[in-house]
TrEMBL record:
InterPro entries: Gfo/Idh/MocA-like_OxRdtase_N (IPR000683), Gfo/Idh/MocA_Oxidoreductase (IPR052515), GFO_IDH_MocA-like_dom (IPR055170), NAD(P)-bd_dom_sf (IPR036291). Residues 4-121 form the Gfo/Idh/MocA-like oxidoreductase N-terminal domain. This is Dehydrogenase. Residues 131-250 form the GFO/IDH/MocA-like oxidoreductase domain. The lineage of its organism: Bacteria, Bacillati, Bacillota, Bacilli, Bacillales. It comes from the Bacteria.
Length: 324
């Protein structure tokens, strides 16, 4: 069977999805919708698919099996609920929604419609992350005791779409967008859920009203401690996760690889063959649809990331530790 896919949102991430669809034999891209006509039409032409300005019209006419929702965060919930009601399986970009209440609306709509929902937590598919998860499970370096995750990325680049810097539309700044990846990465790597946080954020960016940096101290329900430090201000880019074990350490550098130390300098672990994370993500969704099971990155799972982020912002506001 070939599944027809439509894309809602023709922005930065849409190409990753369309390239992945090309590589998965059982998927066919049918159409793309975007309120920005020139952007949407150009993408549709490039990939030889239909263009619509209105996603409701597109879904009604195209009757796709799967809708990929790649919209600004404030539109995730309304779009996912509407598409679920039309009977589409959903690949909804991360973060799932602006808050837990919206996540619950999506979960309710998906359950009622009997469709599958996967949220695009692509961290699960990067080869070095997969190797790190295996390393933790193997016990080779002993017990995992702490995680230190750092992300530095200039967040105010001129071509960043404005909505990312508006709290009402993005739900938050660097933590909502990239912190969602860090929280997901820590939860997924360690098979645990963040259940306690103490966090503070800063608002020093040149535009917008979202936080430009944040520090999170967290604890998971397995008793693991973690620190996430993110900065969107000027500085050298960095995207690293250090894992501190009882008998060694590991360093995960995003999209680059995994290093381990059993004492002394880090040595790189032989990389595993790379497969496009967006391809693996679609394969996971297809398996979930075919086997009538929830994908790894289910709606319930993605809700836990939003619940942790809500607690982060609450902790910053109140100045005290928050339970998730
Ligand atoms: N998984 C990842 O690694 C990853 C990477 C980048 C972005 N993302 C996520 O993907 C989503 C989209 O991000 P992006 O960087 O592509 O943003 P973007 O701003 O480049 O794209 C969003 C698009 O949605 C369109 N749009 C807005 N309102 C619309 C509407 N009502 N109907 C149809 N189209 C509408 C905009 O015109 C724009 O083209 C976000 O949730 C983001 O966090 C995920």
């Amino acid at each position: 069977m070939v599944y027809r896919v439509v894309l809602i949102g023709a922005g930065i991430i849409s190409r990753n999805h369309l390239e992945a669809i090309r590589q998965v034999g059982t998927l066919e891209a049918a159409a793309v919708a975007d309120t920005d006509e020139s952007k949407g039409k150009a993408l549709a032409e490039e990939y030889g698919i239909s263009f619509y300005r209105d996603y409701e019209e597109m879904v009604t006419k195209e009757k796709p099996d799967i809708a990929v929702i790649a919209l600004p965060h404030h539109l995730h919930a309304s779009c996912a609920v509407w598409c679920a009601k039309q009977g589409c399986h959903l690949l909804l970009e991360k973060p799932m929604a602006l808050n837990v209440d919206q996540c619950d609306e999506i979960l309710q709509a998906v359950a009622t419609a009997g469709v599958k929902l996967m949220v695009g937590h692509t961290q699960h598919y990067w080869p070095a992350n997969i190797q790190a998860k295996q390393l933790i499970a193997s016990g080779e370096l002993g017990r995992l005791l702490a995680v230190h995750d750092t992300r530095h990325l200039y967040y105010y680049r001129d071509n960043r779409p404005d909505w990312f810097l508006e709290k009402a539309k993005a739900g938050g700044g660097i933590l909502m967008n990239l912190g969602a990846h860090s929280i997901d990465k820590i939860q997924w790597l360690t098979d645990s859920r963040v259940h306690r946080v103490k966090a503070s954020v800063t608002y020093e960016g040149p535009r917008g009203d979202v936080e430009g940096s944040g520090c999170i101290f967290l604890e998971t329900d397995s008793g693991l401690s973690g620190v996430i430090v993110q900065s969107g201000y000027e500085g050298p880019p960095k995207d690293e996760t250090e894992l501190i074990f009882s008998h060694g350490m590991a360093k995960l550098i995003s999209a680059k690889g995994l290093w381990i130390s059993k004492g002394g300098e880090y040595e790189q672990v032989e990389p595993i063959p790379e497969e496009d994370p967006f391809v693996l993500q679609f394969k996971d969704l297809l398996q979930a649809i075919g086997n009538e099971q929830d994908p790894d990155s289910s709606g319930e799972y993605a809700r836990s990331v939003i619940a942790a982020l809500e607690a982060v912002y609450r902790s910053d506001r109140t100045g005290v530790e928050q339970h998730v």
